[in-house]
Amino acid sequence: MVRQEIPEARLRLFGSPPAGSEGYRDRCQALIDSLGLTGAAVSEVRVEDIVDAYHAGQAVVLSSSSEGFPYTVIEAMTSGRATVSTDVGGVREAVGDTGLVVPARDPKALAAACVLVLTDHELRHRLARAARARALQNFTLEQFLAVYREIYPTLAKPQSLRPDVQTARTEATLDWVSCS
């Protein structure tokens, strides 16, 4: 669908499947071939520096049908790339308004968003700058450590227990409370 609008568009897939999942890679290649996209969609192996993979294209696309927290999208944002992602897991929360997020399992919406990002240079560059700023503000190792350093001492204090657990502990006749 993207190549109908942008005939020269090329999809580069980076990474290797985990051991035992090589069949997935083979099925992807068979799909690429059956759609007549051989050469236009290329599976590439892992690169030594992941930033090189993110910088290899104009935008990064996450087309997952399920996802936890989208570390791949965060890495792309940190690398200063515009992103197009499906609305699964924590993607919308991570991306905010710095990328395009479309419904999962909607190839037309995904293709339209890709075409928009690839053809609107001003939008692509604005999203890329905003994505990098958001990632550096919210998703650095220093940010994660600061949050954990604030949370853990609070959680370690007895008064931070839920009120119902605190009451149970106070009313218990033994030195411990068993919760199942």
Order of helices and strands: HEHEHEHEHEHHHH
**Unreliable stretches covering 5 or more consecutive residues:** 168-180
How many β-strand runs?
5
Mean pLDDT over the residues:
89
Kindly provide the radius of gyration, computed on alpha-carbon positions and rounded to a whole number of angstroms. 22 Å
Q: Largest sheet, order of strands side by side? A: 3-4-5
Structural class: mainly alpha
As a percent range, the share of strand residues is: 5-15%
Major beta sheet, specifics?
A: 3 strands, parallel
Q: Count of helical segments?
A: 9
Give the helix level as a range of percent: 40-55%
Distance separating the two termini: 53 Å
Shape: globular
How would you characterize this protein structure?
This protein is mainly α. The radius of gyration is 22 Å and the shape is globular. Strands 3-4-5 form a three-stranded parallel sheet, with helices on both faces. Strands 1-2 form a two-stranded parallel sheet. Residues 168-180 have low confidence and may be disordered. Among the domains are: 1-46, no CATH class; 142-171, no CATH class. Helix 4 crosses helix 7 (121-138). Strand 3 (59-62), helix 4 and strand 4 (82-86) form a beta-alpha-beta unit. It contains nine helices and five strands. It has helices at 2-5, 22-34, 50-55, 71-78, 91-95, 107-119, 121-138, 141-156, 163-171; strands spanning 11-14, 41-44, 59-62, 82-86, 100-102.
Primary descriptors:
180 residues, mainly alpha, 3-stranded parallel sheet, disordered C terminus
